[in-house]
Each structure stands twice: as structure tokens, then as C-alpha cells.
Amino acid sequence: MERFLPAIVVIVSLTRTDGRHIDLSHRRLDKVPINISSTTESMDLSWNLLKVISNYTFINLNCLTSLDLSHNRLYRLELGAFRGLSKLLSLNLNHNNLQLTYDAYPPNVFRPLQRLETLKVIYNANTDRKDLPNGYQDQRFSSLEFVTVLAIDGIDGLPFGRGFLRMSCLKSLQVNLLGAVQEETLAVFANLSIESLHVECSKLEIGSLHVLVAQNCRFRQGFLLDTHGKAFRSLKYLKTLDLSNNDLTTLHKDVFIQLLNLENLILRNNKLTVIPVAVLNIQWLRYLDLSFNVVSSLSAKDICWVTSTRSSPNNKSVTLSLNDNPFLCTCDTLTFVHFIQDNSHNILENGSLSCSMGNGTMTNIMNLKSKVKDMDVSCVSKFWLTFSVVGSCLLTLCVILAILGYRYRWNIKYWMRTKCRRGPVYDELAMEHYQFDAFVAYNSQNYQWACRDLRNVLETENNYKLCLHDRDFPVGVSIQQNIVDAVNNSRKVILVITRTFLRSDWCEFEIQMTGMRMVRDGREDAIIVIMMEEISVTEMPKSLLNLWKHITFLMWENQQTDEEVFWDRLLEVMARP
């Protein structure tokens, strides 16, 4: 009597939903209680500590139609374990330690279950193919001719055997493929009229399939490289494809090219940021599930695709499920917000279709109707504000550049002319070999003084070679280029300054080029400034003032005594290297 006391205690505390269902789950049972009513039709023994189902355990439960033994520690079924269960329709052995070996599944262990329709023996212990010299133990399941729903483990490198061909009524197959999958792994099922297949990972060759559930398959890399749609090449009748939980970030554009009849595509729980091009290429798609991805909005191209009508039998647009994506409702995604509001018939929404506003607050995207007009006004205002700010900045920049360009126009011209010079310049300068001793810059009003008086003293009497633009500038060369060449090819530059000279643009250019020559060579004595008349500092341009601070000026006087002093000082400066 003491032997059966624990079982009697359990029976007393049974949970009943009605007189025919017994719930013994989560009781830490290591044996099946014996005093169970023979009229019981459904029994739940999941989440206990059962290890072995002994012979005749259920012999008196001939009314039982549903038995749940999942989430135990079962590692063996004895030959007569299911004797007496002639009316059983559903058996769940998921999540145990049952290996696909002779010890775990004796021959004919399922033979008493002649009316069984649903068998779940998936997610059990891994089986080493070395323990199966004769291949997959499919004969253990061959007696289950009326099974319509099967969930079962695969074995690394072993195809499912021909014993499964006797399951002529099989419509739904769930397979957990443990390890590498060869092409022939599921080939036997191609001869059955399976309509729904749920696999962990495989190369599918089941031509009559209409529904394929391929979750948790780690397809990511394969789909990135599948350039010809090989993964689904034989599934020409497939209408529903579930690729949820595959960590997909993108898809090759041709991965679905073989699925000519696909209507429903489920891509939940992946990492997609946009609707892949591969999806946009599916001609007859009617339903797309992108829930639980990382899509922030839909592009104008995506929206056009969703709302367009396909040339299919029902001529309908695509219905979307977009729940639980991190959508943004900002000015940048305003087109998407309008699409959601104006096309609610295209959206399946369960209350979790929310978006983040510009201020960071979250709101249900379907309830934005009252805020859309405000968003339109705000976004237009922001656009014009941004346009005004950018335009003002560009205008200010242009004005600044124009001012700088005008202020330093001669420097720019000098630089450009120097870069575009014909023939070497700096090599000659480095060798201190100059074509002229001095370039004389003067105004036409000082022509006689420069070309007569100055030339006589320096050239005729003292053998200095001068560059005078009226005489020495080559014909056919621009004035700017001639000035740059004259400054660079002369050992000294003589500026003959008058008020008229200062009012001339070309004279201003000559002063600028001379100043840059002084800075370039670091020689202040290379510049000689002759003041032909008294000019106050306030009348001098900035370019001349810059020279005024660094060099000594010579003042021309018409008196003979002063004139002699002037020529002596000029010759002294000219004599310096």
C-alpha cells in the first residue's frame, strides 16, 4: 500500500477542466499515476520527470484521444508502452531525450496507435549516425498510415527513409534537421502530397508544396549569394512562404525568381531596413509581413509598389503587416505618414504600429490624422526656413568671395599668370641671371622723362639695360603677361609715381606685382620708387603704402643741384646686387 501512496496523493490533487480532461503537468512526477479514470479522453503529463514509459502504462485508458508527454526526461519507450490506446489521435513527445535508436523506439512500438493523426517527436536528443548502421529508423513509424501532422528530428547526413512513404495521409511536416543537410535528405517526401512544411534548414525538393514555413534556418548568407533562386527552384506551386527569425538583413534580388505563384510572404523578426528588391519583383504577391524588423519608413518606390494593382486573377494591391518597427514620423518621412493615413486598407494593424515623432515622443501611427495637417505646415515652414538659412549663407559667402576677389584681384592675376608663364622663370632667378637690370613702370604722361632722361643716365651713360614697355613689351602678348614677365625678368623694378600713375588700373597692377616680387624674393632693395611729385599719405593706395613702410623713396627735383643728388642716389641703388 505504501508503494502507491505518492500516486494516490497526486490523483487527489488533479486539476480538471471537465470530467474528461486531466492536467498533471508541472508535478515533478517520475511515474505515470495508475488510478486514472478509464473515461479520460485527454491527459497532460508535460513538464515532469518521466524517464521511461513502461509496458501497459495506459492499458486501461482506451478512451484517451490526446496524450502530452512533452518536456520530460524520456529516453526509452518499451514495446508495449502504448498498448490500449487504440483511439488515440494526438501524441506529443517533444523535448525529451529520445534518440532515434532501437533502444529508444523498439520495433512496432507505435503499432497500437492505429488511429493516430498527430505525432510530435521533435527536439529530442541528437542521434549519432554511427549508431544507425542501417540508416534512419523510419520503419518504427511506418505503421502510422493515418498520420496527417508529423513533427520529427532529422539526423546529420542521413536522408529520411522510405518507411515514411506509408504515411499517405501526411499533409503537414515539421522537421528539425540536426547538422548538415544533403540534397536527398527530404527527397522521400516529394512523393507525398504534403501541403505545409516547417523546416529548420534544407534544400527543398517538394514540388507539390503550397505552404513552406522555414523559420530559424540561418538562411542569411545563402540568400545573399543565391543569384538564380536555386533555394526555391522546384517550388513552382508555392503560395505561402514564411522566412521568419532568420536574421535576414537583405536578400538577393533574384532569390524568389522561381516562385511564380507566391502570394503570401512572411519576413517577421528579421533585420530588414527596407522592402528588399527581391520582394518588389514578386508579380502576384498579395500579403507581406514585415513585423518586428528595423524599417523606419517606406520609400516613394515602395509605396508605389504597394498601392499598384497587379495583373493577377483578383487584381488587388498588396496588404502589409508592419507592426513593431521603429518608424519615424518626421518631415523626412512625411510621404510615408500620408501613405499610412490614406491607405489604411493596405495595412494590417494590431495596435503596435507606432512611430517616433520629431520631438522623440511615441504615438500610434494610425491615430495621426489630426496631426498630419500640423506636420505639413510645420515641415513646409522648416523647408523654407532651411532654404532661407542656406540661401543666406551661400549669398553671404558669395559676397565675401567677391569682395576678397576684388581686393586681391591683382594677386590672383599674378598667381595665374605666373602659373601659365611660357618658359622657365624661377630657374633663372635662382641663378641670378636676369634679362634686364631694371623694369621701369611709368604712366604715359611721364613717357619723355622715362624714355629720355632716365634711359640716358642709366643705359647710355652707365650701361644698364632697362625694360620700357613702349619699347620692349612683345607684340601679341597680353599686357598682364608682359608686366608679370618684366617684373620677374628684371633685377630691379623702378616705379615712377605720379597722381596720374596712381589712377591707372595697369599702374596699380604693376605696384601689386612689385610688392609680391619683394615678398617672394625677400629683397627690399630690388624695388626703387621715384616720387615725381609730392603726394600725401592719404592719397596713396594701400598697395603703395605697403611699399612705403619698407623701402626708401627717391624724390625727383627739377633744380640742377638737387637733380645731381637724385641721379647719384639712383646709381648707388642700382649698383647694389
Task: Give the helices and strands, then pairings.
Elements: H1 5-12, E1 15-18, E2 21-23, E3 42-44, E4 52-53, E5 66-68, E6 76-77, E7 90-92, E8 118-121, E9 149-153, E10 172-176, E11 196-199, E12 211-213, H2 220-225, E13 240-242, E14 264-266, H3 277-280, E15 287-289, H4 300-307, E16 319-321, E17 327-329, H5 334-342, E18 347-348, E19 354-357, E20 362-364, H6 369-407, H7 409-419, H8 426-430, E21 436-441, H9 447-460, E22 466-468, H10 469-472, H11 479-488, E23 490-497, H12 499-502, H13 505-521, E24 527-531, H14 542-548, E25 553-555, H15 560-575
Helix pairs in contact: 5-6, 7-11, 11-13, 13-14
Q: How would you describe what is shown here?
A:
By secondary structure, the chain is α/β, with parallel strands linked by helices. Among the domains are: 1-108 and 121-125, Ribonuclease Inhibitor (Leucine-rich repeat, LRR (right-handed beta-alpha superhelix)); 422-575, Toll/interleukin-1 receptor homology (TIR) domain (Rossmann fold, 3-Layer(aba) Sandwich), CATH 3.40.50. 28% of the residues lie in helices and 16% in strands. The protein has helices at 5-12, 220-225, 277-280, 300-307, 334-342, 369-407, 409-419, 426-430, 447-460, 469-472, 479-488, 499-502, 505-521, 542-548, 560-575; strands spanning 15-18, 21-23, 42-44, 52-53, 66-68, 76-77, 90-92, 118-121, 149-153, 172-176, 196-199, 211-213, 240-242, 264-266, 287-289, 319-321, 327-329, 347-348, 354-357, 362-364, 436-441, 466-468, 490-497, 527-531, 553-555. A 15-stranded mixed sheet has the order 1-2-3-5-7-8-9-10-11-12-13-14-15-16-18, with no helix packed on it. The model is unreliable at 1-17 and 421-431 (pLDDT under 50).
